Structure formats: C-alpha cells, structure tokens
Amino acid sequence: xxxxxxxxxxxxxxxxxxxxxxxxxxxxxxxxxxxxxxxxxxxxxxxxxxxxxxxxxxxxxxxxxxxxxxxxxxxxxxxxxxxxxxxxxxxxxxxxxxxxxxxxxxxxxxxxxxxxxxxxxxxxxxxxxxxxxxxxxxxxxxxxxxxxxxxxxxxxxxxxxxxxxxxxxxxxxxxxxxxxxxxx
Length: 184
What we know:
single chain, mainly alpha, two-stranded antiparallel sheet, 8 helices, 6 strands, 50% helix
C-alpha cells in the first residue's frame, strides 16, 4: 500500500503499544502473549511466591501488583469466548496454587494440590474473568462501522452479559443509563 510516497507492507499481525493486533481482529494471540508475559513476570518473583517467610496475603499482593496487570493489559477491549475464559482461569489457578501451596490430606496424610473450589475460597478477590468483565464495563461505547461478514461478538452483547455476571444491574435499559438518558 502506498500513502504519500510511503510504502506500507500488509501483515497478518503486529504489535502496537504493547498489544498484538491481527487482521482478523482475533484476541487469541494477544491473550497467549499476555499470559506468556505473566509467566515471565511470575518467574521473576518466583522466589517471593515460594518463600515460607512471606504471608499468603503478601504473596497475593505480589500477584495482584506484578503479574496480574501484565496479563490484563488492554483487556477492556477483549471479547472473550468460553475457551479463552477457561484458559485465563487455568492461568490464574496455576498462580494461586503456587501461592497457597499443596495441602496435606487429613485422612491419608499425603500432600495434594488444592482443588479449584478450595482456591476460590482462599482467594477472596474477584477472579481474573470477573476483573476483565468489570473493567470492560468502565469503557465507553466504541464508534464506527463493523466490517462485512458474521460478527464475532458485539460489544453491547458482551456488556449485557458482563452486567448479568457481575450482578450490577438487572434492568433491560442499561444503554440509556450509560448515555445519560436514563435515571437510576
């Protein structure tokens, strides 16, 4: 492509401001990249998370301030599928298992990994998918036209599902409230 005597190469994907953009508007590669960066940051603080000298609360703070922001960078624009939500939960559960460490079974006396339900009870903060949904709710409505073809996800549909999941609003006219036309 040539614009004002400058040539631009057509590419499948590229990095812009730390985010991977694709010509298919897919976020799968971006989520993989974010989780890979999260794993790299986890490796940097691995000694802290495995230390017996630090409390679990402090380890959770390390996770929430060092690893989680790296993974969630740009998440306000993500339209997650169930598969991607599951991958993100698996990533988070792996991090939490490192923080909370194995548990000794009271009956057999053997060490075992914590089950997902046990992790949910121990980790009192919203899980990674809930965080993404609440962050998406803070972003305004995007303008512009969609490309031709079957849409992957509509932004408004994602927001409707997020509102139901988070339990913030049960009314049917949420869009009017966001534009200032409705009343609480």
